[in-house]
Amino acid sequence: MSVCPETERFAALLRALKSRSGMSYEALARKSGLAGSTLHRYCRGTSVPQDYGSVHRLATVCGATPEELRTLHRLWALADAARTAAAGAEEEAAAAEARQEARQEAEQAEEAKEAEDEEEEKAEPGGEGQAVPDTAGEPDPEPAPRPAPRPAPRPAGRSRRRRLRTSVVTAAILAALSVSAWALYSARTPSGSGGGGRGSGDDRPLFSANCPPVIAMGEHDECVKEVQRLLHAKGADIGVDGSFGPQTLRRVTAFQVLAGIQPNGVVEEPTKKALYASRVRMSVWSQEKVRQRVREVFPEVPDKAVAIADCQSFLDPLHILPNTNGTRNWGLFQISDARLRELGGTPRQALDPEWNIQAARRLWSRDRDFGDWPHCARAAEATPLTATRPPR
């Protein structure tokens, strides 16, 4: 199986991390929770994971540095985009093959019809191949009244019928081609997008030839600045410095959740289109409003509750943190994926400050303690923490 350059670079870094770790595939499988056969495919480049979480988990087990994790995330995004493009090419090839088969079937039907017409012509009186009775040696019969002349065959009529059939078949082929082309376009271009491909003269900078198909963690350029400007215009608290760091990753992921896009943390074509077209607003509660509401919902332990939220998210309702096992924590109290499922919630709900605070209250009410947040044990102290901002 041939491997595209993007996938090979991604697989090469995974192989380097595995080699440096000194662990076998079996050992890595036990520590990462992935199947050994799956790890083999990732490192050989014959498969690209659909979710970055498993990649992050594997790299962490191998002892990857923060810089290596950023590089790996970017390489995964490029390999994932290349896989998607390859799948689209296969669909287009299948559609082209179907169109060719339709043309061949139409031609065969036309040839069969022409052969049938020729047989009909032969069967007509006086037609080619019709037997003539032998009257040699017989006396001449009395002349019979001459019958009215039989109308001659009308080849022009048959010609018109043939032209009509040919026109109908041609129209059917053209219709099939048009439907196939429309289906391919619709499958690859969301409704209302207007195309937006690179090189199409699009005036949106993210779709220009200057920006790559995928913008991801670790990049530093004007394309990242454009992403940050668009997020800021939608109300996001984000610096516009052209550096795709942790804060930009969190804001991109939050925007994807709010816009109903797969939250993979990278800016691909669907996210680019939504950044220009979506009416999503990312403005959130101020830190003071968060503190006030947390105290109202936790009247028994108001300071501790505020301290927990501050420790978990810097009082940022759109804070999102990825874990080494591929899961994520969401919102003010960093509700985990597992807790979201227990509470019947979704990431979008978890980014709603009111829902998040009420969910934290439900978790606290089970044992009337903050056991769900062990890493913020210092928040149990009476003095609340000073709110800070996460690094950008």
Topology:
Layout: H1 5-21, H2 25-32, H3 36-44, H4 52-61, H5 66-123, H6 155-188, H7 222-233, H8 246-259, H9 269-277, H10 287-297, H11 302-313, E1 320-322, E2 328-330, E3 335-336, H12 337-343, H13 347-350, H14 353-367
Antiparallel strand pairs: 1-2, 2-3
Helix pairs in contact: 1-5, 2-3, 4-5, 5-6, 10-11, 10-14
Structure explained in plain terms:
- It contains 14 helices and three strands.
- The chain has 392 residues and is mainly alpha-helical.
- It is elongated and about 105 Å long.
- The chain has a three-stranded antiparallel β-sheet.
Summary tags:
disordered C terminus, 14 helices, single chain, mainly alpha, 392 residues, 3 strands
Structural class computed from helices and strand pairing: mainly alpha
Helix content: 55-70%
Question: Which shape, going by the Cα principal axes?
Answer: elongated
Distance between the termini: 41 Å
> In order across it, which strands form the biggest sheet?
1-2-3
